[in-house]
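SAMPLE LOG
Freezer: B-3
Tube label: C17
Construct: single chain, 127 aa
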Amino acid sequence: MTSEEITLYEEIGGRETVERLINEFYDRVLSDPELAPFFENTAMDRLHHMQQEFFAAALDGPATMSELDLSYAHSGRGIGQSHFNRFVQHLLATLESIGVGDDQQMEVIRRISTYVNDITGEVGTDS
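STRUCTURE (predicted):
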């Protein structure tokens, strides 16, 4: 990437937009009866911070993400493909509601979806 190319992180509005995205997204996720139980004993301030780092790194923003392995962080939690799909549906709805363009929405979803096996532990599935 040359210094003249704009990253996806910058395209969608940078840190301010990612912070808004995380806040509104988790409002939706925590209101979802299928997903909320995964966060019952979660320190939400810490999760928000980690998600801001994750999204920044995934969208070619400032990469300050810790080395915590996604598969380790999600291991044994019972997260399946259907949960991941609901998560992505909420992410897409949030991106749309905060005004991220259609092309950028699809690229965000594509990038986040590359981590599905790390999150679900379903290695080698095509679902």
